[in-house]
Description:
The chain is 53% helix and 21% strand. By secondary structure, it is an alpha+beta fold. It folds into three domains: 1-63, CATH 2.40.50.140; 65-149, 5' to 3' exonuclease, C-terminal subdomain (DNA polymerase, domain 1); 150-194, Orthogonal Bundle (Helicase, Ruva Protein, domain 3). Strands 1-2-3-5-4 form a five-stranded mixed barrel. The protein is elongated and about 65 Å long. The protein starts with a strand and ends with a helix.
Amino acid sequence: xxxxxxxxxxxxxxxxxxxxxxxxxxxxxxxxxxxxxxxxxxxxxxxxxxxxxxxxxxxxxxxxxxxxxxxxxxxxxxxxxxxxxxxxxxxxxxxxxxxxxxxxxxxxxxxxxxxxxxxxxxxxxxxxxxxxxxxxxxxxxxxxxxxxxxxxxxxxxxxxxxxxxxxxxxxxxxxxxxxxxxxxxxxxxxxxxxx
Length: 195
């Protein structure tokens, strides 16, 4: 449908902007993170997602392609509509969202309006595997997802949690280990030395 629009900003009334493209004004809903990146300029280019349901047709806009990609993944989760997805992206930048899901930190997600504890847990379960498979344009996210794909590190992380370490503490212990060829036992041994 409509994948990208470039034009002149006529109005900014968060979360909506009015963008003139070829003489036509498009009402586009954007997350606050995109608003902050727009600056004071009058020209703007947005990646867009056109959402249709029986009683509305809405255009959502994003400064970065990564935000658009995450938005599309979020609305695939049952119980998460475009407005809740927009709220998530307004409250968490892309790196924070990916880290929150990777760390299974449902408390951070539950603080977002429209998301309770159960919805946050459901979102993490449904989206975690899909996020590790995404190819995002920012290399910082790619290295994060590659780290999460190492099955030995995941098993070592789980073993450290069984030993009584909290998730974040266990991840910190494992984060300094660069060698991805180590066995689970070797990873645990080195992680305990890093404590």
